[in-house]
Design a protein that fits this description.
Number of strands: 8
Distance between the termini: 108 Å
Helix content: 55-70%
Radius of gyration: 34 Å
Structural class: mainly alpha
Largest sheet: 4 strands, antiparallel
């Protein structure tokens, strides 16, 4: 047995908030009774507030996990940004990096809110995105400074070199990320558009604070270190006057003086790794793995369906899950829709109204017996009621007298059999029905529901209803609508919208990378790596059970941005390096590999906390970010270096020829040869 109960709303507005002072307490009490242990019956309740309550509880739980993920990234940044040395550990600079990211977040959210952009639970992911990008930028700038310091005459020169190379590198990634989100903001999906506005502004402000606030903090930290002041405890002076920051060996971090913790192993490890990539058997294996992934991903993209269900937002333990399962198992589920007809000449177009009735009764899209069209009921009544029966023609089921048609309709609504249709027709003038009808509606049901089939199935069912109705009456004059159709509509274009946004984002990104690196073979290698990352993330998500919807679309746009970070830094470092192709590759991977790896590893480790997420947004967040970090790392640190060995070229400065001085008395013949 199932029952439906309705309650009159008693909404009171206080301090800008609207509250149903009767309905909300009643529903809360009802939930406690039906879900209580003392309930004599096995009940499965669902109230108007149930969805918001259950979803909010799950979001709160997963938000705690997301906060822990933030703390893991920040802790990793503090531990790895500097060296294991009381002067060079850069803990204070790590705090400055976090503050810069926080300022970027505050500035972007404030500006987006000022623009009137809406905020949704999905936007809670943006801080994580900015932390990932900001930490990556901090690693790039600091690593550039540390490497330059080893050969620079003065620390100011090292800061300048870090800004020249590292600043250009993060400019490439930040600009491409910003443009990718700017393009995404033009989408027809409001939630996606709003997310892209918030995220794009966040990326822009993150870059601004990195090259201003964070670089200023780096200058202060460098000045402190070269004055032999302890990190954080700047009032204390290091007693070792022979220590040179990042030139002399690290002495251990505070009291942790184990020999292994003193070593900076990043560059030596990546140098050996880069030399391993130069071996032909290794390169062949990598290319085969690269092509295999492309093939599997192409299959996955072709097989992936579009779908989204409201119950995905519920945690698995929610009582609403049981309610939905019981309803689907024991009761016929359907979606009620209305056919709305606007202010046409109803009398003159009775034939089309009969066609609408035939559609409601005979269409395979409509559940049999679910419709009850006021026009059909009225003519059936009029055919048996004087004086209207005199104007009724059974042959074509119409009335031949316009006055009787409209007067009879009003009279019909005042009868016991016609009263239930009174709300379905709005007269131009209730006092004079002869002026015609302003609008009308009629309800029916279709078998598709929010919890049945795929999104494409629901979209097709909606379109079949519309197409059948259009054959009965011109579309502009009659439309089928249900609240659910608002959400089903997107399944018809979301795949095309996704492809369009990704294609435009990749094209713009390729243009920016070319303008800033401007070496075609390197640009081509970077674009292949980035494009393959996005393709593989999309395709491999299919094997993880992911289906296309606006949430997945957002994460794929984020994948474009993060994959730029994982690949463009290596490409830019290769472009700057001197020597043969092999020497340039080793130099690029040795110098840029550690900060890129740190950014990838810190992001991946931090999202592991979300492996047991309860809500759909965070489940997909974990899946898509895991794929993005792992596949982005594979293409940026493995595939791209191999591609550069094939497409790259030597960059060797030709030695300058010194002019030959001829001694006095040299023969004319020799002079001519010279």
């Amino acid at each position: 047995y199932r029952g439906l109960y309705t309650l009159e709303a008693h909404v009171v507005e206080e301090n800008g908030e609207r509250t149903d002072v009767v309905g909300e307490p009643w529903e809360e009490q009802g939930i406690n009774i039906f879900r209580g242990d003392n309930s004599p019956l096995q009940t499965y309740p669902q109230f108007a507030s149930s969805w918001n309550t259950e979803f909010a509880a799950a979001i709160e739980q997963d938000s705690t996990s997301l906060t822990i993920a933030f703390l893991i990234i920040i802790a990793y940044l503090v531990m790895t940004l500097g060296r294991r040395d009381p002067v060079d550990c850069m803990v204070g600079l790590s705090v400055a990096a976090v503050l810069g990211i926080g300022m970027a977040l505050a500035a972007s959210w404030g500006l987006a809110s000022a623009f009137g952009e809406v905020f949704s639970p999905l936007h809670a992911i943006i801080p994580f995105l900015l932390v990932g990008l900001g930490v990556d930028d901090a690693f790039i700038l600091v690593t550039g400074y540390q490497r330059a310091l080893k050969t620079a005459d003065h620390w100011e020169d090292a800061v300048e070199e870090a800004m020249r190379k590292g600043g250009m590198s993060i400019l490439i990634t930040s600009l491409t990320d910003f443009l990718a989100f700017a393009i995404g903001s033009s989408t027809n999906i409001p939630a996606l558009s709003s997310f892209c506005v918030y995220a794009g502004l966040g990326v822009l402000f993150d870059f601004f604070f990195q090259v201003t606030f964070f670089m200023g903090a780096l200058v202060l930290d460098a000045r402190r270190a070269h004055a032999h002041k302890m990190d954080v405890a700047v009032c204390c002076t290091d007693g070792d006057e022979n220590h040179e920051p990042y030139k002399t060996p690290a002495r251990g971090w505070l009291c942790a003086r184990c020999s292994w913790i003193k070593k900076d192993i990043g560059e030596p490890v990546f140098e050996r790794y880069a030399k391993t990539l130069l071996l032909w058997p290794v390169r062949i294996v990598i290319i085969l793995a690269f092509l295999t992934l492309i093939g599997l991903s192409s299959y996955g993209i072709n097989q992936m369906t579009t779908n989204f269900r409201a119950d995905w937002f519920l945690p698995p333990t929610s009582y609403l899950i049981d309610t939905i399962d019981i309803a689907n198992e024991y009761f016929t589920q359907s979606t009620i829709f209305n056919v709305y007809i606007k202010d046409i000449d109803y009398y003159a177009r009775q034939e089309e109204l009969n066609n609408v009735n035939s559609f409601l009764v005979n269409s395979s899209s409509v559940i049999e017996g679910s419709s009850d069209f006021w026009f059909s009921a009225y003519l059936n009544w009029a055919s048996q009621t004087a004086p209207y029966a005199a104007a009724y023609v059974a042959a074509n089921n119409t009335m031949t007298d316009e006055g009787l048609f409209y007067d009879g309709l009003q009279a019909f609504f005042n009868t016991s059999s016609g009263n239930r249709y009174a709300g379905d027709v709005q007269f131009q003038n209730d006092q004079n029905p002869q002026e015609g009808i302003f609008a009308s509606r009629s309800a029916a049901q279709i078998g598709a529901t929010e919890f049945s089939g795929t999104g494409q199935d629901r979209y097709d069912a909606m379109q079949n209803v519309r197409d059948d109705l259009a054959r009965a009456m011109v579309y502009d004059d009659a439309r089928a609508f249900a609240n659910s159709f608002i959400f089903w509509e997107r399944f018809g274009f979301i795949r095309d919208e996704l492809v369009k946004n990704l294609a435009i984002a990749l094209a713009v990104m390729a243009s920016i990378v070319f303008l800033l690196i401007y070496t075609l073979p390197i640009v081509a290698s970077v674009i292949i790596a980035i494009g393959a990352t996005v393709l593989d993330v999309w395709g491999m998500a299919y094997f993880w059970g992911v289906q296309i919807n606006f949430v997945v679309t957002i994460f794929l746009l984020i994948a474009v941005g993060l994959s730029v970070d994982y690949s463009a830094h290596i490409g830019h470092a290769f472009k700057e390096a001197k020597g043969t192709v092999e020497e340039r590759l080793v130099e690029a991977v040795k110098g840029t590999g550690p900060p890129v790896f740190n950014a990838i590893f810190s992001t991946w480790v931090s999202i592991l906390i979300l492996a047991n997420a309860q809500t759909y947004i965070f489940i997909v967040f974990f899946q898509m970010f895991t794929l993005t970090t792992l596949l982005g790392g594979f293409h940026g640190l493995v595939v791209l270096p191999v591609l550069l060995t094939f497409f790259g070229s030597d960059n060797v400065d030709e030695p300058k020829q010194e002019p030959i001085e001829l001694k006095e008395g040299t023969s004319t013949a020799v002079k001519e040869i010279v």
